[in-house]
């Protein structure tokens, strides 16, 4: 019998049922109104389920009782309100129920289609006329693809402690630092772009661009899409680089995604100097930290040692001006790989060939002009 003393204007908590009836507010104001010359600053609180007729009844009864002014507020009638007694929770529950229904529908459909086999399908259900429905494997794949397309994207958070790459290079005498952050499985999750002479505007724009790309990567946008979209983008600064594989880039964005495409996707179609396949595998394995990382790392170290030895031999030849047929000639490692005859032929055709004006690859001589084998562009000849 004491519970009514504690009743409030709204339901208390998520499981509350008791509250003051809207007409109780009106009667309280009517009791105090004869003793006041002005109106009362008192709002009639009404539950979310109140109808138009109930609101009209509040105004009508206030007039009958002589209340000079009345204000009402229906719970949840505004997107934002000072006190919420469960309307947001109800919305969340409704959304959760809708999602559960959708998931249940997809699950039932998938279970219905699961009876279909690749050999032409089997009976899974019947239509409204009682005829058997036969689904094929393509129907199942289409249903799954549609369910995935309707599913909302979810952000995959980066680990607190994460590895990555730091790549230093120069583009048109501009120092560039490209840093990456990776998930535990070695997948790219974020990028950072730092430069030394870019000024405040370009620095801020590149920071925002890196944040946008990182956000997309964490929400599941494939890195392949970024690479395909941004490679060969042309604007200043552009020109030659000192990167061992990407020797020329048409812009800063072009350089970044050429490097990322090579490091994380293993693509070499847009780099000027293609790395060895074993070197790419060693880099990927070392980032993933799997069981073959040590072996691959040793292979990478061996390849680097051979490259350094070859570079030292060539430098020694240039220093002493000795022909390549002398005893100081660099010796290629035997037994590991055989030189590609096509690459050897193309290296002879390149010479001092310029870079392609369209894609930036090294061109090859074509008669008295030059032609790009990557995009087919002809430099001066039809």
Task: Provide an overview of this structure.
This protein is α+β, with helices and mostly antiparallel strands. The strands form 5 sheets. The chain has a 3-stranded antiparallel sheet. Strands 10-11-12 form a 3-stranded antiparallel sheet. It starts with 21 loop residues before the first helix and ends with a strand. Residues 115-124, 290-295 and 322-339 have low confidence and may be disordered. The protein is 41% helix and 14% strand. The protein has helices at residues 22-32, 52-65, 87-113, 137-150, 199-218, 223-230, 252-265, 277-288, 293-320, 341-350, and strands at residues 43-46, 71-74, 122-126, 132-135, 166-171, 174-182, 188-195, 239-240, 248-249, 364-366, 369-371, 378-379. Helix 2 (52-65) links the parallel strand 1 and strand 2 (71-74). The chain is elongated and about 105 Å long.
Task: Give the secondary structure arrangement, pairings included.
Elements: H1 22-32, E1 43-46, H2 52-65, E2 71-74, H3 87-113, E3 122-126, E4 132-135, H4 137-150, E5 166-171, E6 174-182, E7 188-195, H5 199-218, H6 223-230, E8 239-240, E9 248-249, H7 252-265, H8 277-288, H9 293-320, H10 341-350, E10 364-366, E11 369-371, E12 378-379
Parallel strand pairs: 1-2
Antiparallel strand pairs: 3-4, 5-6, 6-7, 8-9, 10-11, 11-12
Helix pairs in contact: 1-2, 3-4, 6-7, 8-9
């Amino acid at each position: 019998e004491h519970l009514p003393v504690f009743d409030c204007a709204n339901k208390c908590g998520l499981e509350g049922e008791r509250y003051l009836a809207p007409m109780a507010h009106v009667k309280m104001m009517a009791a105090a109104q004869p003793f006041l010359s002005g109106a009362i600053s008192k709002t009639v609180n009404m539950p979310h389920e109140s109808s138009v007729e109930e609101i009209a009844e509040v105004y009508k009864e206030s007039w009958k009782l002589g209340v000079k002014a009345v204000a009402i507020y229906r719970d949840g009638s505004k997107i934002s309100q000072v006190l919420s007694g469960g309307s947001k929770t109800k919305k969340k529950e409704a959304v959760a129920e809708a999602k559960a229904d959708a998931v249940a529908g997809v699950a039932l459909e998938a279970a219905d289609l699961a009876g279909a086999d690749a050999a032409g399908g089997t009976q899974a259900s019947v239509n409204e006329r009682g005829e058997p429905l036969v689904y094929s494997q393509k129907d199942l794949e289409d249903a799954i693809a549609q369910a995935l397309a309707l599913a909302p994207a979810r952000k995959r958070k980066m680990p607190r402690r994460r590895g990555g790459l730091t790549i230093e290079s120069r583009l048109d005498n501009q120092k560039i630092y490209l840093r990456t952050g990776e998930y535990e499985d070695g997948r790219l999750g974020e990028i950072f772009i730092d430069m030394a002479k870019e000024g405040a505007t370009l620095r801020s724009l590149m920071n925002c661009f890196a944040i946008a790309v990182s956000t997309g990567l964490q929400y599941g946008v494939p890195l392949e899409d970024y690479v395909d979209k941004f490679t060969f983008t042309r604007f200043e600064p552009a020109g030659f680089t000192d990167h061992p594989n990407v020797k020329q880039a048409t812009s800063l964005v072009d350089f970044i995604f050429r490097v990322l495409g090579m490091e994380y996707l293993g693509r070499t179609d847009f780099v000027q100097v293609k790395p060895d396949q074993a070197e790419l595998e060693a880099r990927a394995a070392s980032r993933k930290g799997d069981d073959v990382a040590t072996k691959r790392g040793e292979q990478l170290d061996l390849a680097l040692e051979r490259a350094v030895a070859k570079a030292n031999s060539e430098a020694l030849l240039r220093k002493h001006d000795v022909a390549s047929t002398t005893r100081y000639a660099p010796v290629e490692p035997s037994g590991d790989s055989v030189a590609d005859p096509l690459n050897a032929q193309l290296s002879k055709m390149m010479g001092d060939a310029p870079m392609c004006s369209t894609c930036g690859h090294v061109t090859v001589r074509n008669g008295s002009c030059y032609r790009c084998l990557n995009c087919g562009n002809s430099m001066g000849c039809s």
